[in-house]
Amino acid sequence: MSQQIDYYDNDVRLEGILFPTENPASNPIVLVVPTYAGRDDFTLEKAKMMNQLGYSGFAVDMYGEGKTGSTPEENMELMQAVLDDREMLQRRINLAHQTVIDQVGVSANKSAAIGFCFGGLCVLDLARTGSSVAGVVSFHGLFNPPGNTDGNKISSKILVLHGNDDPMVPHESVNGLANELTAVNADWQIHAYGGTSHAFTNPLANAPEDGMAFNENANRRSWEAMSNFLEEIFS
Questions:
Q1: CB 135 within 8 A of CB 158
Q2: Which domain holds residue 34?
Q3: How many CA atoms lie less than 13 Å away from 12 in the CB half-sphere?
Q4: Rounded-to-integer distance, Cα 47 and Cα 42, Å
């Protein structure tokens, strides 16, 4: 049984979808932050899958009113509007986190956030802002530093799951993220999958000419890595 939870960024209503366990106050919760397409079926399915691991899942809305794009162009437009206002992005991901842990009644050290593509950037920013979320996981995420979090202490553990051939994240960006996290003594891991491009977890991704393709091995390995990571941070 899912439940819609509304929260507000000024006058914008954000619509998260919670998939609780039978005893949500006794189990950790994992936020699932969507790709540039918005809080779509892919996001809802990943949030629901958290129940199989013993966690509540919360599908985050970053655009407002559960908006999703129907074409790559619409998706880019929706994402760019939030990316262009990084403080708004950070405010919304922190709002989602605070709202759902308050709603479920768990402490921040029993919460994590995972994100895909644009969502990967969002969960990295959640950690960068000094959130007390226990850990974050980026799947084929974007690494662009926000420029307003330099020197912040990062207490969240970080796992980055990255396709080595992702054209959206050149190798210098991977090194840049490693240097950024090392400089603030963060607990971080970056797993790079060879022969793997962007969107490797999405079975519908089939545009290798654009550097986007599902990769069955990387999808399986990255989910296992995430599962192990969550088990570690919640133990």
A1: yes
A2: 3-234
A3: 17
A4: 9
What is residue 151's predicted lDDT score, i.e. its pLDDT? 87
CA angle 33–72–11, rounded 5-degree value: 50
Tell me, what CATH number does 16's domain have? 3.40.50.1820
What distance lies between CA 57 and its chain's CA centroid? 12
51-78 pLDDT per residue, tens: 999 999 999 999 999 999 999 999 999 9
169, 143 contact by CB (below 8 A): yes
pTM over 0.85: yes
Q: How many CB atoms lie within 10 A of CB 77?
A: 12
Report the alpha-carbon distance of residue 85 to residue 41 in Å, rounded: 26
Helix (H, G, I), strand (E, B) or coil at 57: strand
Q: How many domains does the chain have?
A: 1
Amino acid found at 132: S
